Prior knowledge:
Layout lengths: L3 E4 L3 H4 L14 E5 L7 E5 L7 H15 L8 E5 L2 H6 L20 H15 L4 E6 L8 E4 L4 H10 L2 E4 L7 H5 L5 E5 L6 H15 L14 E11 L5 E4 L12 E4 L15 E4 L8 E4 L7 H4 E4 L2 E4 L4 E3 L5 H6 L3 E6 L6
Helix pairs in contact: 2-7
Amino acid sequence: MRLIHAEDLSDELLELSARDLHQHFEGPALIRIPGDRQPALFLSVLLHGNEPVGWDAVRELLRRYRGAGEVLPRAMSVFIGNVTAAREGLRRLDGQPDYNRIWKGGAGPEAELARELLAELRQAPPFLAVDVHNNTGVNPHYACITRLDPASLALGRRFSRPVVYVRSPDTVLAAALAPFTTAIILEAGRPGERRGVEHVIEYLESCLQLSALPQAPGHEGLDLFETVATVRIRPGTRFDFALQAPTAATTPQDLWLLEEFEHYNFEELSAGTLFGYVPAGAPLPLQVTDVADREVAERYFRMHGNELRLRRDLVPAMFSPDPAIIRQDVVCYFMERVPHDRA
């Protein structure tokens, strides 16, 4: 798999939805769009095929400038990721790796593609890198950063009040870019929400206007969190969602997740909060790992009869009610607040 290169985006291409991009690009592509300043703003979209907000924002942003007869204030390089999954509206296809988990080496065509793109970007580092995503479940719009430096903090706060410091997984694109450029991840709500597209356009406009990266983070209004644990379903686990405790008539499962938990995303929860239900005496069907990839389930969960409850105070994020997303990625992340004196 080789990276497709293109100069600029035609008006015809800007008419294509994420699902239709496969008609023009048979695989991942890097498009260089001219602008008044260099180096370019790097933008990655559609690393997950069911997250069109970045591509929709690019289309609308460029149409606005062209409609006004203007060029971009800064050049922009757009990496379009998993167009084959986008065709089906899926995060990834069966047999594909997650396109946001291929950036730390490995074998296979996607890993080769990742090495090719990173080598090119390392040779001519971008002004700033922005990786745009939708998410499932009820979450506020938020930014993620992989470094606690002033520019990252300031640029994260420019997008949202909540900013998440992410150290794991370290295989994401932003982590691979961080050694040679500032990289920001935008989580812009659920697919299909107009506000997500508008918010990303506003953010990109503000970044294109910058002559230099901000160096004063400014903690006013900043809610800074750090991801401390990742919660996954153990392979082979049968699970469903429940509004209440299962009864004898309930379809047997290894786990019932509390359906309302998606409404707890980014809420500060206390120890003892109900997370779900597990058959009494059964082993925990969840894998919980810390940023060093150590198993830490006992640190975060305890059983009370068949009730699965939190063992400590924490803040969840990205809990999703979509079973396919849970199986392909995670149940959720657990976070803790970062005091401002650490940033």
